[in-house]
Amino acid sequence: MENRTKHLFLTGLCIAHLMAIAPSVFAADEPERNDLPLIEPDVKPVPVDQALIDTENFEIGAFAGVLNIEDFESSFVYGGKLTYHLSESFFFEAGVGFAEAGATSFENLAGNVQVLTDSERDYSYYNISLGYNILPGQAFLTENYGFNTNFYLIGGAGATDFGGDTRFTLNAGAGYQILLTDSLAIHLGVRQHYYQIDVVGAEKTSMNTEISTRLSVFF
């Protein structure tokens, strides 16, 4: 009877010992897990050379284009602009432009009749405007080379010298800026100039449309 008790006691100890070491034995036999995906996607980043706006806040440039002077045909226009960037969104622009008005339809029909003298046909304007970049983006020349761009709205006030008088002028328009390098940019823009004039009859609001391109540098 005593031997049976010892036998049962020893059997219980062995079973308890086996149960204690069993988890570690099974864990050692378990194959090592690999969390890597079975198929790795072959995706590589494509380097893109982007022209960034220079750290300087000033931009100066020259422009040329076409100005439709109401009642006086379309004329070649040229000038310059100085821009101060207040932030990434807002900027001030000071501009000056020069053109020469053509003949009116009445002058073309009447022959020798002149509504304005040659000196009075000289057209010039100067203004100060506030611009807002509403749509920054990118334009890609190739899949590996891109340019930063800005689409902006602009408007302001100034004066126009035309027809022997100086006239208060409002302007409004939009433009598209392409940054060729970190200090060189090209602009494509359209602008409307509004002022009161009475050269060809009753006083009216003249709306002159300007389409131009500009090359500018940051400094």
Automatic annotation (TrEMBL):
<keyword id="KW-0732">Signal</keyword>
<feature type="signal peptide">
    <location>
        <begin position="1"/>
        <end position="27"/>
    </location>
</feature>
<feature type="domain" description="Outer membrane protein beta-barrel">
    <location>
        <begin position="60"/>
        <end position="210"/>
    </location>
</feature>
<dbReference type="InterPro" id="IPR030820">
    <property type="entry name" value="OMP_myx_plus_Proteobacteria"/>
</dbReference>
<dbReference type="Pfam" id="PF13505">
    <property type="entry name" value="OMP_b-brl"/>
</dbReference>
<dbReference type="InterPro" id="IPR027385">
    <property type="entry name" value="Beta-barrel_OMP"/>
</dbReference>
<protein>
    <submittedName>
        <fullName>Outer membrane beta-barrel domain-containing protein</fullName>
    </submittedName>
</protein>
